Each structure stands twice: as C-alpha cells, then as structure tokens.
Amino acid sequence: MKLKITLSVLMSSVIIFALILAIPGSVLVATAKPLPPIKIGIVQSVSGMVSDFALEDVEGFKVRIDEINEKGGVKTKDGLRKIKLIVRDNKLKPDIAVKNAKSLILEQKCNFLVGCISSSCTLAVSQWAKENKALYWCWDARTHHATGSRGHRYYFRSSGNTWMNGHAAAYYFKDKPYTRWGFINPDYSYGRSQFESFVHGMKEFKAGVKVTEQWPKLGTTDFTPFITALMAAKPEMIYSSLWGTDAMTFIKQSKGYGLFKKMGYVGLFHGMPLLRPIGQEMVEGIYALTEAPFVYPGPPENRAFYDAYKDRTGKLPSDYSVLGYNAATFIVAGIEKAGTAETEALIDALETVCIDTIAPAGRICIRKCDHQSDYGICIGKTVRDPKWPWFVLKDIEIIPGAPTMRSCEQIMDERAKTK
Amino acid sequence: MEWEDLLFQFLSGLTTCMIYFLIAAGLTLILGVLKILNFAQGGIYMLGAYTTYTFMRLFGGSNLGFLLTLIIAPTVVAVFFCILEVLLLRRFYEKPALYVLLITYGVLIATYDMARMIWGWIIKTAPMPAMFQRPVEIFGRFFPLYNVFLISMGFFMFFLIWFVIHKTVWGKMMRAAADDREMTAALGINVPLVFTSVFGLGAWIAAIGGALVAPMAGMAADMGIEAGIIAFIVVVIAGLGSLPGALLAAFICGEVQAFGILVLPELAIAFMYLVLVIVLIVRPWGLFGKPVIIK
Amino acid sequence: MQKVEVVLSKTNIWVLITVAFFAVFPIWAPVMWKHLTTEIFIIALFAISLNMILGRGGLPSFGHACFYCIGGYTTAMLMIKLHLPFTIALIAAPIVAALFATIIGYFSVRLTGLHFAILTLGFGQLVWAIAHKWYSFTGGDDGITGIPVPTALQGITPYYYLVFAILIVCLILIWMIQNSPFGITITAIRENHERVTFSGLKVWHYMLLNFVIAGFFAGIAGSLLVILERSVFPDFGYWTTSAGVVLMAILGGVSVFIGPIVGAAIITLLEHYISVYTFYWQMVLGCLIIILVMFMPGGICGFIQDRIKGRKA
Question: Which CATH architecture has domain A38-160+296-375?
C-alpha cells in the first residue's frame, strides 16, 4: 500500500533531518586554536522547579572560568589552555541527566562533567560516570550516599553532604536548652536524607527528642494544615529542610499563626537564595544554616570576591554561586597540579587538592578516601539590616566539616555492603 | 491533643479547601459547558499569581492597591485567555476531544516558559497587604486574618458563580448551550460567544485563585503544573461540571489531608490520591456526576 | 489467523530497504546516534502500543505511561532484588504490565471520550504516586539505578540489534493483530459501536482485550528502556509522559500504521536538540504542538498521504 512508500520516504527524511540538526552540534568543536580548549560539560536543571538556584551554581562556575580564561587559560604542562563550557538542561529528571551526560561526553567530547543540584540526578549521572570512566564533579547535590555507599573513584563533591549538614546542626544544638523537636521536610529523597541525618545526630549528641514530623510534598502552596499540626505537638524548635518557594511559603504562612513567637525554627540553607527574594517578609531571630553566608564587607578577601563578582555579573552572588565558584576553583587547581586534563591523572591530583573559599569556611580540602570535601557549615540568626533590602545573618558560627563526616572505614564498609 | 488543636486543624483544612476549590471551579465549569478538559487551567492560576505580583509592586503593596489588584489582575489574565480561546480552540469544539486536550497541553507548557521569560527565574512573592498583617485571635490562639479572608472569598466566589449560572440570563444560556448546542444556536443565541465567555469566566476564577494565593505563598513558574493536577483530581472526585461537587470534593480533600497528617504524617502526599482511587473504583463519574456507562 | 502473503511489491521493497538501512546503521554511525536510535526504537514501540488504543480503538488514553513504567520497574526490581537474568525480566515485565492493564482497563474502557481520558489520567497518576512514595520498595524519586547489563549486551551495538529485532517482531505481531478479525472488530467499534453491539458482541470485552494487549507491548518498551538507561524513575509514569506519547501518535498520524513511529522519532530528536539551542524548549514545544494540531490534525503521515491521494485523484 501507499502507506509503505510514505514509511520509507519519511524514515529517510527523518534521518536526513537528524543529520542536519547534528552537524551544527559537531561544529561546536573549536579546532582553530593551536591548543584545543578543555571542554567541561555541565549537567544542570535549567528548567524545572529549582532552576533559579541551579543557574546560580552555573553562574558562579562560569565567573571563575571567565577569570581563568581572561588570563589566557589554565596552566597545563603543554601550555595555557582555555576552558569551554557546554551546558545541558536535565529538566530536573534523572533519566534526562544521564542522556545529557552521554551527549556531553560521547557527542561533544567533553573532558569531564560537572553539575547536578538534585540528589536523584547526581546519583543517576554518578552511576553512568562510573560505568563509562568519566570524571564527574558534583557541586551542590547533597545526598550523602553519593560519596558514601554509592561513591567511587570517578565522583567528587565540593559541597557538604546531608550527613554533614544534619550532624553539624545537631552538634550545634546539643548544648542548647531545646529538647522537643518538630520536623518539617519535603517528602522526597533530599528531605528524607536531611531528616534522617539530623535525627541520627540528635541521638548521638543527645540533643533532644522528636515530637512530630511533617512531610509536605515539594511545591506545596498551602502549608496551613502542616503548620497547625506542627504547633499542636508543641515542639520547642522546628528543624526544616524546606527550600525555595516551600521555605518562603512556609515562613509567610507561619507568621500568621504566631508560630515564631511560640517556638524556634532552624532552616537548612535559608541563606541568600531565600533571604533575597523574601525580602522584608522574613522573620527575625530564626536560625539559618548555610555554607557561604552573605557577610559584607567582612574580611578583605570576602569583600574583594563580592565586589569582583558584582562587577562581572551586575549582582551579588548567592550561596549557590559561591558553590559553583568553588567547584571551578577546585577543578582548575586540580588541572594545574596534574598538568593535564586527562581523566586518570586529574583524578589523582584532585584527590589531594585544597582551595581557599570565602570566610568563615576558609580552606577546604577533598578527602582522598571518598572524594568528599570537608566544607564546614555556618549557622547564624536572621536579623534586619538597614543597608540591604534583605535580612542578613548575625552571630555566625562555623561548624567545621571534618568532624561531621563519617570515617573512611565506615564509608568503605558501606560501599562493600552495597556491592 | 486539645480540642482547640482539632478546631485549628479544621480551619487549616478549610483554607486548603478554598484554594483547591478556586483552582478546580473554573475547570469544572469549562468541562460542564464546553465539554473540554482544559489542561492550561494550572497555567492560568500561575499567571494570575504572577500578574498579581506585578500589580501589587506597581501599587506599592498598599491596602487599596491590593483591592485594585484583585479586580484588575485576574481580569487581565482572563481576557488574555479569552483571546487564546477564540484563536485556538473555537474551531475544535465539534472535533474529537483529543485535539483540544493537546492544544491546552501545548498552552500549558508554553505558559510555563512565558512566565519565566517575562518574570525571570527567581522565585517571588507578593507582599502581604498591611491590613492582613495582624492575626485574629480564636480561643487564645492566633489564626491568620488572611486565611479568614481567603475562606470568605472562597464562599463568596462559590455563591457568585452559582448565582451567575442559575439566576442570570447569561447562566441560562450557558446551561442551554451545555445541554444542547444545536438547539441553542437554532434559537438565535451566539453559541461561540457564550463558549468564549464561559472560558473567560473559568479562567477568571482560576486567576483569582492565583491572585489570592500570591501574598501568602512563594511562586515559581511551575506552580501551575502542580495546581493543574490538584484541580483535575478535585474535578474527578466531584463529577464533571458540578460546582457544588467541586466545593464538596475540595472540602473532602482539604480536611482528609488536614486530619490525616495528624494521624499519619508520613502519608501526607498520598491522601488525595487515596480519595481519588476510592472514587474511581466506586463511582468513576464522581460524587455529583451523571453516570455515563455505555456498553 | 489469515495467511500472510508475501508479495514482492514496490512497497515491500521499500520496507526491506529501510530495514536493511537500520541493520547496517551501527557500522558507520557514531556512538551517540546509536544510543539515540535505540531510544527511538523503544519509544516507537511505546507509541505504537498507545495507538492501538488511540488510533484503532478511538479512545484517548492519557495514562498509558503507567504500563511503560510498570514494565520498567518490574524489570529493574527482578534484576536488582532477585538477581534474575534479563531474559526472564523481559518476559515478566509485559505480563505484569498486562495484569495492571486488565485492572485499570476494567474500570476505564466502559467509558468513552473525555471520561476515559480522565480516568486513565487518574490511574496513571496513582501509579506514579505509588512509585514516587513507596521508597522502600521502589526507591522513591531516586529511582533504581545501576541495573546490571548482561555481558552479551555490553556496549551499545549488540543492544541496538536486540532492540531492533524485538521492535520488528512486535511490529509484525501488532500488524497481524490489527488485521485479524479481532482488529477489524476494534476498528468497527471505533466507527460505530452501537451497530457492533446490535450484532451481539460484547463491545467492552473487545476494548478491554485491546487495552490489555496495548499495555503488554508498552511493558516491553519500558523493559527495554531500563536496560538502555540502566535505571528507572517514577517520572516514567508521570502524566506528561503519557501526554507526550499521545502527542507522538498524533504528530505522526493516528490513522497510519507507521505514524506513531515517525512521531516518536521526530519528538525524541526534537527534545534532544531543542534544549541544546535554547533554554526555553517548552515554549518551542508548546507552540509546535499547537501549530501541529491546528494545521495537521491528521499528522505528518496523514498529511503526506492526503497529498499523495490528492495527486492521484
């Protein structure tokens, strides 16, 4: 039948169509320069719920790379090589993240991968990277399993992880007079992970007991039943890993119930990414944990960093931008130490590399056994500041990362068990 | 657990109920009269919230500004979608339902990017108007005054729409067109215009929902996707085209969740789907729907 | 079953040429294209299975992705938790998917049009919610990763051939089913179900069987994807996946057998390449959908078919 003619004609057209689309993609390889650029593939959630933070990660990374490229590139043993970034959108779906990884490494011939803000994406890409022996650097996704039971040679992480975060918080509160804790976390793997980590730390440091736990789903617009349920259990402190619009909505709605007058609140990663958009609607006196709190001017190195960033992008960096910036700094340091961007040599160099980031964290290093950085986390209280249209943190204390990490033996044990 | 806790849980559930109702009411109206499932309903809600954000910033977040915004912003959104309806949907009412479903799906995902292109990527919130910044005291505890406002607006909208449908000439035309398009057209009524107006009304209700939510929540472009699913579930439970059903279904969903999380907080995400499943098995055409089994 | 006559007609030669083209494709194609094409084969099977309900049956199913998802999870769980080999998982997956299709279909197929769409959408979301929430069993939103690949299928090329072979077999089976007395009855039901009822047949039995068979083949597709991606996630069953595959069928043309294949190929390639060039791929996709439905409701194949018929007439 004529259907079959159209079948074949169409099949051929589709293939030709695909060819036409593919050719511009392959032309992206720069061949005119004498030394080819190092290509870094970025897998990030450009669309999807968390895109504003994800893009801040990318922006911070890009700022550092731009700084390097302006000086001529990164120093390898063959000379200076510029760095080229190729970004792919994983649409916040782990299966697409894996497709991105394939496209970046196999099609675009990137030297290695960076990225992911969501825990499920990082685990998925990590799995692929392990099987295909591609270096993958994670700058923000936090599930501790990624460097723990599911970690491997080809995976590095420059941010802290959920285990560290929860234990740091529990450690901070162990001597404080709060014993009754209520929990509110988004019901997905990140929220569960943060919850389990803090509860474990709470038991370990005898910081208190759990009186209630609430599990709203990601993207809840109406927290009111959760708020009243939390309040009904009468905790003294609430521990929350809500982020983004969830955190914003929860805080706004809780104010009306007088929640913050009756109990304290500890918010994980309630730094600039929340404080800036929520502006004057924020509440004073709540605890916020973040790795890179906004302190301006602060020490001279901090001020220099913030000013330079603002000059380049027109706005001040958020905490996630700092994470992206740190990731780039680590990688560049690793390439310079190894003298090459070859995967195996680079991995060996990165295993023992340290960098300096803004205070109070200061110097952060990668731990060799699990490729996890020892980035400490800061905790402070929110306060209004007339200099800024957003609240800032005061009484900031840093809890160093190294004591909150699990020991190398524990990690190797877990990895062995998972096999 | 004191009885005041239960009362407050009930009131919180009522707040949730009204938000669900406002998103779902427009959808069920459009379903009942136009017989189409408007996938874009969630996107309309989202745009209502974002437009409110813009207008409130324009008016400086004052009380008067808020009232003005509540009138203007949803109207702007509703008009926009009326235009879309005329351009895109009109010619498909006689065709199989599938085409309209796909067009509204295309509109939904396009609105997502439209919001990001116009308003940017950063999450936003509209300022809480000054008059609502103090709480109401109920039995010695605080309850947000804004929630009281929201619940009242929910009831008000329900009665307003009910009044329009049952007590106005326009409503009569809607009901006639829903029952029998050809006959209504034969009587000289401009059915396409009625359809556009119903679509606009449905959009307006959803946009008001978004507008009312804007000062009490953070907004991101994808809030429409989640809202769309909620609207859909409420409408299925309610029965297609039934307004009282939508209110009752929203009430059931809101209160089941509110009391469910007191008892089984780990299952918070599942309660709405549980209600859905029970309805789908026992009465697939919804609580107030008309049985439509054929074969 | 009728005897399938093999005629060396012009069209069959074209079919053979296309098959031969794809048979030698891996020899010269770069790695990424092999991955993409294998994925297209799998999605094409998924889309054709949907079209059994949509095109042939005339019912808009917006929950078909749940059978795809169930097939995927069955395979993943059998291989990871019970360490069963891939062959067993590949056979079990469509059977489990068909079982679920029986249950869901039982409640759904007696309704038509909008109600059918809504019910299938509702059930599909339910399956997704369970996969998403039941962390201990399904891994929740982390999904299941690290699914072992049988040594014989290491590397993309052998897997490409396996998927291609399975696709061809499935297509032949579906073609035969749709041209059998059963398939013709389904078409008759779509066109005038009252008349079919008057002839004494229980219409909904036929529709249910059609629904279950479609779910069976979707389960195979899900199973195949799991080995390609080495992972499975709850989003396989989200309603946007169902909407996406409906879109593929319509884009290609629901009344042409190979329509969904063409649609699957185009959408998969578009999704891969649009987001390379712009962050706002959803705006592009949304506009494309609208334009497509407005101007080419018969799909690309339908459009071309009409043009060819028009020229001949």
Answer: 3-Layer(aba) Sandwich (3.40)
> With contacts defined as CB-CB under 8 Å, which chain A residues touch B258?
225, 228-229
The answer to whether the A38-160+296-375 and A164-290 domains have the same CATH topology is yes
- Give the pLDDT of residue A367: 92
Interface contact flag, A229 B9, Cβ < 8 Å? yes
Pick from C11, C233, C275: which is nearest to A94 by CB? C233
- Short-list B272, B278, B219, B287, CA closest to B16: B272
Q: Which of C145, C148, C165 is nearest to C73 (CA)?
A: C145
* C-alpha distance from A382 to closest chain C C-alpha (Å): 32
Count other C-beta atoms under 10 Å from residue B39's C-beta: 27
The domains of chain A are located at 38-160+296-375, 164-290
Evaluate if residue B167 carries a pLDDT over 70: yes
In this prediction, residue A299 carries a pLDDT of 87
What local confidence, expressed as pLDDT, does residue B148 receive? 93
The answer to whether C241 contacts chain A (CB < 8 Å) is no
Pairing state between β A287-290 and A377-383:
antiparallel
- pLDDT class for A25, splitting at 50, 70, 90? very low
Domain A164-290 has CATH 3.40.50.720: no
Nearest CA among A117, A224, A349 for reference residue B255: A224
b/e sequence B9-36, b meaning 16+ C-beta within 10 Å: bebbbbbbbbbbbbbbbbbbbbbbbbbb
Check whether C224 has a pLDDT greater than 80.
yes
Confidence bin at A5 (pLDDT 50/70/90): low
DSSP one-letter code for A397: E
A vs C, Cβ pairs < 8 A, gives 133
Residue C93 has pLDDT above 90, yes or no: yes
Model pLDDT for residues A126-185, shown as the tens digit of each residue: 999 998 899 999 998 898 988 988 899 999 999 999 999 999 999 999 888 889 999 999
Please name which of A96, A85, A83 lies closest in space to residue A42, comparing C-alpha atoms.
A85
In whole angstroms, give the CA distance from residue C229 to residue C245. Answer: 18
Substitution target from A49, A218, A221, A263 for chain B, most B beta carbons within 10 A: A221
- Using one digit for the tens of pLDDT, what is the confidence trace for A207-230? 889 999 999 988 888 899 999 999
Assigned token pair, A358: 């803004």
CA distance C243 to C234: 15
The pTM of the full predicted model, rounded to 2 decimals, is 0.87
**pLDDT recorded at residue A242:** 94
What per-residue confidence (pLDDT) applies to C256? 86
For residue B37, give how far its alpha carbon lies from the nearest alpha carbon of chain C (Å): 7
Largest CA distance in chain C: 62
Determine the Cα angle at B69 with ends B63 and B75, to 5°. Answer: 155
pLDDT category, A30, cuts 50, 70, 90? very low
Condensed to tens digits (0 to 9), the pLDDT of residues C278-287 reads: 888 889 989 9
Domain regions of chain B by residue span: 3-282
ipTM computed for the complex: 0.88
CB contact under 8 A, A232 and B5: yes
pLDDT category at C312 given cuts 50, 70, 90 is low
Residues in chain A within 8 Å Cβ distance of B121: 51-52, 55
Measured distance CA(A269)–CA(A293) in Å, rounded: 9
CATH of domain B3-282: 1.10.3470
Cβ contact B29:B201 at 8 Å: yes
To the nearest whole Å, the CA of A135 is away from the closest chain C CA by 17
Query: Three-state SS for A239?
Result: strand
Q: Any CB–CB contact under 8 A between B123 and chain A?
A: yes
Q: Which residue has the tokens 């939510």?
A: B213
Does B123 contact A52 at a Cβ distance shorter than 8 Å?
A: yes
